[in-house]
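Cross-posted from the bioinformatics board.
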Amino acid sequence: MFGIVGVPIIEVAMAAQAAGIRYVGMRNEQAACYAASAIGYITGRPGACLVVSGPGLIHALGGMANANMNCWPVVVIGGSSDRNQETAGAFQEFPQVEACRLYSKFSARPSSLEAIPSVIEKAVRTSIYGRPGACYVDIAGDMVNAKVERNSQRSPNQPVFFHPIGAAYGRAETVLREFIETSGLPFLPTPMGKGVLPDDHANCVAAARSRALLLADVILLFGARLNWMLHFGLPPRFNPNVKIIQVDLCAEEMGNNVRPAVALLGDISAVATQLLMCVRRDGWKYPSNTEWWSTLKSKIAANAKISKALALQSTVPLNYYTVFHHISQLLPHDCIIVSEGANTMDIGRTMLNNYLPRHRLDAGTFGTMGVGLGFAIAAAAVEASQNTGRRVVCVEGDSAFGFSGMEVETMCRYSLPVVVIVVNNNGIYSGVDSETWKAMKQMGEAPPVSLLPEARYDEVMKAFGGRGLLVRTVEELRSALQLSLSDWERPSLINVLIDPSSDRKHPNM
Amino acid sequence: MFGIVGVPIIEVAMAAQAAGIRYVGMRNEQAACYAASAIGYITGRPGACLVVSGPGLIHALGGMANANMNCWPVVVIGGSSDRNQETAGAFQEFPQVEACRLYSKFSARPSSLEAIPSVIEKAVRTSIYGRPGACYVDIAGDMVNAKVERNSQRSPNQPVFFHPIGAAYGRAETVLREFIETSGLPFLPTPMGKGVLPDDHANCVAAARSRALLLADVILLFGARLNWMLHFGLPPRFNPNVKIIQVDLCAEEMGNNVRPAVALLGDISAVATQLLMCVRRDGWKYPSNTEWWSTLKSKIAANAKISKALALQSTVPLNYYTVFHHISQLLPHDCIIVSEGANTMDIGRTMLNNYLPRHRLDAGTFGTMGVGLGFAIAAAAVEASQNTGRRVVCVEGDSAFGFSGMEVETMCRYSLPVVVIVVNNNGIYSGVDSETWKAMKQMGEAPPVSLLPEARYDEVMKAFGGRGLLVRTVEELRSALQLSLSDWERPSLINVLIDPSSDRKHPNM
Amino acid sequence: MFGIVGVPIIEVAMAAQAAGIRYVGMRNEQAACYAASAIGYITGRPGACLVVSGPGLIHALGGMANANMNCWPVVVIGGSSDRNQETAGAFQEFPQVEACRLYSKFSARPSSLEAIPSVIEKAVRTSIYGRPGACYVDIAGDMVNAKVERNSQRSPNQPVFFHPIGAAYGRAETVLREFIETSGLPFLPTPMGKGVLPDDHANCVAAARSRALLLADVILLFGARLNWMLHFGLPPRFNPNVKIIQVDLCAEEMGNNVRPAVALLGDISAVATQLLMCVRRDGWKYPSNTEWWSTLKSKIAANAKISKALALQSTVPLNYYTVFHHISQLLPHDCIIVSEGANTMDIGRTMLNNYLPRHRLDAGTFGTMGVGLGFAIAAAAVEASQNTGRRVVCVEGDSAFGFSGMEVETMCRYSLPVVVIVVNNNGIYSGVDSETWKAMKQMGEAPPVSLLPEARYDEVMKAFGGRGLLVRTVEELRSALQLSLSDWERPSLINVLIDPSSDRKHPNM
Amino acid sequence: MFGIVGVPIIEVAMAAQAAGIRYVGMRNEQAACYAASAIGYITGRPGACLVVSGPGLIHALGGMANANMNCWPVVVIGGSSDRNQETAGAFQEFPQVEACRLYSKFSARPSSLEAIPSVIEKAVRTSIYGRPGACYVDIAGDMVNAKVERNSQRSPNQPVFFHPIGAAYGRAETVLREFIETSGLPFLPTPMGKGVLPDDHANCVAAARSRALLLADVILLFGARLNWMLHFGLPPRFNPNVKIIQVDLCAEEMGNNVRPAVALLGDISAVATQLLMCVRRDGWKYPSNTEWWSTLKSKIAANAKISKALALQSTVPLNYYTVFHHISQLLPHDCIIVSEGANTMDIGRTMLNNYLPRHRLDAGTFGTMGVGLGFAIAAAAVEASQNTGRRVVCVEGDSAFGFSGMEVETMCRYSLPVVVIVVNNNGIYSGVDSETWKAMKQMGEAPPVSLLPEARYDEVMKAFGGRGLLVRTVEELRSALQLSLSDWERPSLINVLIDPSSDRKHPNM
């Protein structure tokens, strides 16, 4: 449970702790709700987000929207006004159940103490059944300290874990790997599908993504949606005659934007298993010597050459590719990578490999800025409670960090050993260097994209007792990252000053 | 105009700058919208908040809700998806106009480039006419870089007049002061009404607020709402037979919760002028020697004695009263005080006097946490552009500061000389000291209200080039505040470590 | 109170009757809500509409929308599910308070029996204060038969009648008449403003409406909105340089679409009184011999000539003008005219004079079809209870009648002596004659606008014991109308078969 | 396509006709939308409902709500204001897409003419994929007569497959019958599940419904929801230890209110086929000689005895049971029965057998009054176009008939040979006889449940050229029904006057 306490839900947090639920107090409900939703993705069971009435709940709407778009389960619990003050202008009175409607699968207020268990059960169950998403439960302020006989409650059912969607979420990794290896097909992961099969798998064609999409004549789509992330499945990014075999849990998703040649409705895992059986039975295998493979492989090689050339530049200030190249070399294979930002997330996605499913969290389908630190805190809290020995690394653009930077205090307070890396180019998309900045300021207004040059985000971490490191060179970066990765007692923030004019993704890639 | 740029509204920000509108880039749309709304309160004309689609807009809903509750004008402008991608799963696609309905007086999307001026005119006009509030205008992404013949536009009207509400907002200060002084009546300001008449005015009975409310037999209500802030106007906080003369611009507010003996519908200023004329004509004056005055004065004296006793304690760690006592002594009379927090705001309101109208901004009617830094930035931006020589002082609880602490970077970036004072008691409501904290952590979970003890919020300010000062004693506090107030080049943050168990407001007051 | 009983609100209707409230049971909640809203217009106090849960309430939304657009007060009371079944799939469970949001000024559910009086008070007050409109109160099913101590209720306030809008609604007729006569200005009523001054007043220029709008250089607008009904106040229907003096109760209405030269915010009556004082003081009078008056008068004369020529045609089947001409001759001056339909309402508006304010109700600002019989029932119920001796005449197009024709049973059941006149042209806009109909049917599908030729709507009235009359000629029409107007015991329906190809409004008028 | 034409959608109706779509013009959008939704249930493909802007659309919301609750596909197409008049107070301007949100699965406006095909495709597909429901498409008025190059459209996909829910809707009848007969299990149909297996099947225990629910220890639930219609699956109507095997297409429905012992997610047909295979493989059969069967059979016999006794009474006025007994004897086995009302529907459901799936339509899950005539018109229109020779019989309570009685004109206009039977007890639930009515009227107000005694609904049908018959005795009823059933040229209405105090369902049944 993540949240911020206040009237009227302070006792709810304490009761949760007393019942053995871990409560993590955050600094803004916005980040708290992003954190809670990440729990759902990582564990398959919804985290809870506890917020106060009115503005507290409204701050959490971003998290609900993002969870719904990502199909992640989360349950938000909001305190609300005392019922006998409703319509009278109560403290933070707001139509909360109604306010959550657009952002949730289920939004309700228990009408009595007796009804709370069954409404909570419905919220939890609905959040994970079918296509997962956000649910909201409103608790009237006057109920918080009221009491009820345990026997008078409708007995709640404990939800059983059920029907997740998406290849990563659906835990279909084993069967998908077998299917890919048996069939010999090339594959392309979506951003958060990275790691279902390792990014360095021989059949992965992520490094030739545009070419692969454009030239494919048949695409087997496992749970991915043909929305903006896949260019709607339409020309000019796709072959107009491409045949799509669409596998999805959600019937309404079938045929969205592009009519599939074949639609297979069902759990990814179940469908992939059946496909695997067919492939095995028929002994079918896509030959490794086709022209298609050659084309992709030569494109992959060409792209690798370009990015390697960029990655080997070590002039200061550094560029994105060099930074990610060295980070990539040092990160453990089983680390959880959280990432957000514009260039930072885009280029980072191509440079930082994932090797395990559900080990990457980013701005997602809704492209939400401000999720990074919340996600990292959630991941670290899970790791802490499960003692898995996995690192959580949070790779942030400098603008992205600003959305929830105060949450480093939360990391310090709970001794969560997150390694935050801020790839700092002094702005949104790109900024300017200190001298240009000074000149521009004297002449008048700075451009809207500019942030303070060389801002010391590392000092923010130090302010709360974490490790803060400022790096400008490859050596400093490597040494800072090694140091941070070796420390399990407290969080670190590595502030990597890069060239503010560092190019966005290379145009030929 | 406050906001965060990104696709698709980056060019809107640049065009605004080109048109001479000052653009302030913030770190989270949440704080940006709080800032924009404060412009409306301070200047009487709406500020603009510019946000990207989807999550960017959703982050701004808190600011719209708060503005609406406070009856402050603000216009939010949101970019949205390209129209030809709607329903196809466009980037950050969301029903934005609909999402803003609950939070606004007017929410619309111009159907064409030609319609933009008239929709903006409606939004600006609606935001300030009648009871002011939030308005939303949605700009489809594909419109941003499209062009239109200037002549083909419907010619927009420039809004001409407006009808603000509330005594502070309505600029009724001159006539209200005359009315009070002519009539000799005691008065009690609501939190943001502080300063309409000076807090140290002889007729102000704020220091005996509870007693004054309870014993009044007639109350003349100038624009204040009988909601939770005034205990709904009902017993046990009010005399059940109290007669209320209600003056309000908004007909629907009349009789809300309590039926007024007399309802005067109209502009505060106009009504107060008419009342003043009556009082003058009749030569009526409330005698200064009534029992009612004696009761109030003796209660005021008693309360003053209690708070003075508390304020004179200078043992370290300090208590709230001592801190506010010394701050109060040093603040210039014309400074703008922004404040939020629980104890910090409550006690601060009684200890920090206001002498001028519209010089106080706080969590307001909606009790919103997270508004402080945005409000302060807005106030400082106004001061900077008007060169008034007034200081902006932002008095924050430590938890409150966390909601938008990263905005100190914004202050530094724009060289806004805000003086932020964090009254730091290590938690929400109250925290624990470092030793207790360590012990509790070893034993298990910390209480939900606790934050990191002695967190160095001052270092956060220093990270971005501002002045950061940590103070524990009266001397340090005075010297830090004097130093900060003397610097007009950059913001300061004074981190005042107080006794984590420092009492909440004294029970007898 | 109008409505349809059922679970769970049957006892509410009975309790209302026991408390002396007249309950009129209707046949569809749609018509019931239109009826209830008309009470608000006619009497200035809101009628109530009582509906069952789910679909019953949804059927009433049209009435709420229409009331809100017309600025008429109405209070809808909806039963809802038992609270302990909420979220479980209760009978007709629906988020009713939320569903009414878009259609109301106030929508709430009392949280307890004790809260009912104060929520009802808020609904009633809000419906009439400021700009009137619809309010919704939700009554949980389990509250209906529950009991409460009378003393435990929050004491409700009785709303005082307050601030209506519009010249008709605002009861400004006396002062407006004096103003017009003193100033000598020509005037033009909006559809439901007809009768504030008599339509046959020497200064009325309704018969030259288009010309008057187009040539005016100054317009004094009393509460009318510059929406579609007044062509938005824009060219080509208005002089582009027209100066508008806008008088309105609602600040947000000021400057809507056109910037007024002068905006006068306030009650119509009060403002008109002040204007009258100025005109009198200055002895100003608009001369009767201006070119403007000549232009208008010659246009009026020309139009009168055209319509007289049409009205004098008595060939069978009749045309609209002849029908309305004879109806007009026979209707008493103080009758209440309800009207809806396309041609029937449009042409009828120009041909049927009103002589008294609030004596005309039609499809209104929202152009709602289906309102006629409900409005007529409401008007007749008011007349019955006040024994005023005024007739209620309901002039319906045949398509319009079909929306709520079953409500003639309601008229019969309550012995409401409404005279319904169906001007029957066999279709929407226009239909075809019987022979064409038969031919078309044999050939395939009939056009979407066609209804059954010569449908016997009169027989529908007879089915329930009312008088039904079929007329085709002038003589039959006059005799049927005279007979109907002489009968105060029961309703009549005169089915006037006119030429299905009868022209729409004459193009030169 | 059902609807009512007007501005701006009249040309849409004509274009639909030109494209070969049958258009049925109704008398109220409320009934039109109920009709359109029934098409979806009967044919498995959505009907369309075409409505004008503002009130026209609002009248259709009831139909959308009912369709959504019943999980029936329907596509509502609404005209809206011209885009260039939006926000200016256009004719019937309303936020229509937003207004439909609560009542639909998908609600959108195409942003351009080019986008219309793909938005319609999404609406149609979404209405039938997954759990079916209502979809809304908004067409801006100015688009109606605009033109576009055919080639510039995004090519729409024709939806290909679909996943209906419920045993009746899912066309699982063949396999379910085999399953029941192979397994020997007793079964109980839900109201609209009647006919999936014939009501007179040896294993049907509908006549002992309460007993069957209460005593079952295992329930196999095929697509039925455990909502109010099944008493939430909870005590006291169910054994608290009952084990439920829940088969549903919709994951979120699983475990709603009661945790199933087994949850089988999938198409009813597919799951039933698998269960049948298991039963066959194992040779399992529920013995016919169990105590359970004896109990149910003796209860069935007892109930049959009671209802037979009631049905054999032929004293005038008749009671419900007698009326239904004779109707039942005369109806052809393949007729489609539409029914609504309180007692009429409840008792009729037990007395009127269904023998084929999807041959019964009634007030449904949402308990909507006013659906009957629309449903009957839809069913008759389908029969007319398919020439199946099946009768449509519409059994209405008298109050229920009043909601949409004017639609008999529609039946007459289109020569749809529906047999409407109004079971007329002079009121809602129950009324009073004529003498009592007169006495009550003289004394003051009639009870809210009373309608006009012996109202001649048959005359309403005659008014439009249909056959109207008034019956009071068994002989009259039988003869009228035989006559009506023999006429395929026009509709009939049999007005059956029954005892107004005729008992509701027998308490022991």
